[in-house]
Design a protein that fits this description.
The protein is globular. Helices cover 35% and strands 18% of the residues. Helix 10 links the parallel strand 10 and strand 11. The strands form four sheets. The chain has a six-stranded parallel beta sheet, with helices on both faces. The mean pLDDT is 96. It has three domains: 158 residues, Rossmann fold, CATH 3.40.50; 130 residues, TPP-binding domain (Rossmann fold, 3-Layer(aba) Sandwich), CATH 3.40.50.1220; 185 residues, Rossmann fold (3-Layer(aba) Sandwich), CATH 3.40.50.970. Bound molecules: thiamine diphosphate and magnesium ion.
């Protein structure tokens, strides 16, 4: 058997034996040995293959698949620029400890810097963003696959394939394969969180630093403090609309806590971050302090869910928060126009199943306008909050589930159009919120500066439904809540897009500002 075929088969065999079920391949010649070995495994029912032509989309698709399945997902591409297209998703995986196994094909090392075609310095190209790297040559990978490293984030193996690249034998190399997934390495002992303050708050970052909803719910129950959750769809007892009423400096001052326990990172609202800063002490629980956020500052730090020893809660304190939340709920319920706020409120109330929420306004509007509830499984890319790869991540998540819904802004939608190219079996409904540009910028200090529309607003004037239709995807544009509700009642089947055509970005920013001003007097 030739050297490249031997290396590819050893790797694929080990992956299957380790319990890996899915792989994402992008087309190319140099990766032929591993692509063909994976194809052979898929023909035997040992692996589900997903083919995505754009490596950036491919890697995000795998990211979504890995997040939703909890299993490592290999991505396979050819040499050269293909490798660099993996970088955005590798960074997102790095910042959120997602097990992405990056398998890049390369030419033999002696061809580097010789002018050989499609040959660049792709060894260590991802720098410190991967937990483990190896530049592999020869017929057999000399080490066991670094599966332990994968449990802590992305891993890169650069595979030097020399010619011939096609198999030269027909041996039954996949017989007697034994699937023996290795148990996840035991985590470090978590320790005990002892608090003797009654006026504390528990703040939960959107993806909980990777902790499970159950682990975080247990901490919330033991503390019995007001819970501020960036994701109000996973914690029914969270204080709804906290991000909104905390925008009032007066309210924030009255509610300054003695202690803030923060789970994961909070990246959505300045108001919530200001509240955390006003606490006398901050305790952080975040497994990512063991890998990526190693310099995070806090009075006390835990890298796993701790046991909690708390003194009985001050129920008056909890009630103060609940009253403010109820008053804000009333104001939120009174908004009746077709706007990004009412859209978020209604989506949050009516969605079911698995939901991916894109960066920018969509995730912030859900945080602000949803009534806290449960019964939904949520995902978002909050490692680096990119507006890239959002369709692909959602497709990967939908592939690991029966179906999913994605809520995505127009720029994020346009950014990842190639995510819509290629066959998938996924059932994904995309709700594209079209405000013709980056609506978030109208809510930031740069709103209205000279050149605002050119460098921040970036209107495109495109018809998103027509674009989707051109890609063979069914799409419908809606301009009212009732039309949206009619569309949402239909079953999710294949990929479909509902384009919500929104009023102007300026009008939305003015409405948000007005709402916050009204909150000053509640
Ligand atoms: C890859 C990437 N490029 C640029 C940004 C900066 N950015 C943050 S939000 C945003 C606008 C997003 O617009 P859209 O998706 O339409 O959402 P909206 O703000 O309108 O809700 C941009 C460009 C980013 N986060 N990620
Ligand atoms: Mg937009």
């Amino acid at each position: 058997m030739n050297t490249s075929t031997s290396l590819a088969r050893v790797i694929v065999r080990q992956l299957i034996e380790a319990g890996i079920t899915d792989a994402v391949i992008s087309p190319g010649s140099r990766n032929a040995p591993i692509s063909l070995a994976m194809y052979a495994a898929s023909e035997k029912g040992l692996l589900n293959l997903h083919i995505r032509i754009d490596e950036r989309s491919a890697a995000y698709f795998a990211l979504g698949l890995a997040k939703a399945s909890g299993r490592p997902v290999p991505i396979i591409c050819t040499s050269g620029t293909a490798v660099a297209n993996y970088h955005p998703a590798v960074l997102e995986a790095h910042h959120s400890n997602v097990p992405l196994l990056v398998l890049t094909a390369d030419r033999p090392a002696n061809l580097r810097r010789t002018g050989a075609n499609q040959t660049t310095e792709q060894a260590r190209i991802f720098g410190g963003a991967v937990r483990y790297f190896a530049d592999v040559s020869g017929g057999v990978f000399p080490l066991e696959l670094p599966l332990d490293s994968l449990h802590r984030g992305p891993v890169h193996l650069n595979l030097q394939f020399e010619e011939p690249l096609l198999p030269d034998d027909s041996s039954d190399w996949l017989s007697e394969i034994k699937i023996l997934p290795k148990a996840k390495p035991a985590g470090k002992s978590a320790g005990t969180l002892k608090v003797n303050t009654a006026r504390g708050v528990l703040v939960i970052g959107h993806d909980r630093g990777g902790l499970s909803v159950a682990e975080v719910s247990q901490i919330a129950k033991d503390l019995n403090w007001p819970v501020i959750s960036e994701d109000p769809l996973s914690f029914p007892d969270a204080i709804s609309h906290a991000a909104l009423f905390l925008a009032s400096p007066t309210i924030r001052k009255n509610l300054a806590p003695e202690t803030a326990v923060v789970i994961g990172r909070t990246t959505l609202s300045r108001s919530v971050n200001a509240l955390i800063s006003s606490a006398r002490s901050q305790i952080v629980v975040d497994p990512r302090m063991a890998t990526v956020d190693t310099y995070r500052v806090a009075d006390q730090r835990f890298i796993a869910a701790p046991k909690v020893e708390a003194k009985p809660a001050d129920l008056d304190w909890l009630e103060q928060w609940q009253k403010l939340s109820q008053r804000t709920s009333k104001l939120v319920a009174e908004i009746s126009n077709w706007s990004e706020s009412t859209l978020a409120r209604e989506l949050a109330a009516n969605l079911s199943g698995t939901v991916f929420i894109a960066s920018s306004r969509p995730i912030r509007d859900i945080e602000s306008f949803a009534s806290a509830r449960t019964g939904i499984e949520t995902f978002a890319n909050r490692g680096l909050s990119g507006i890239d790869g959002n369709i692909s991540t959602a497709l990967g998540i939908a592939t690991a589930r029966q179906s999913a819904t994605a809520i995505i802004g127009d720029l994020a939608f346009l950014h990842d159009l190639t995510g819509l190219v290629g066959n998938t079996s996924a059932n994904l409904r995309i709700i594209a919120i079209n405000n013709d540009g980056g609506g978030i910028f109208s809510t930031l200090p740069q709103a209205g500066v000279a050149g605002f529309e050119t460098v921040f607003g970036t209107p495109h004037g495109l018809d998103l439904a027509q674009i989707a239709t051109g890609l063979g995807i069914s799409a419908k544009t809606v301009t009212s809540l009732s039309e949206l509700q009619t569309e949402m009642k239909k079953p999710i089947s294949g990929i479909s897009v509902i384009v919500c055509q929104m009023p102007s970005r300026d009008a939305n920013a003015a409405q948000l500002k007005n709402l916050v001003a009204n909150l000053e007097s509640i």
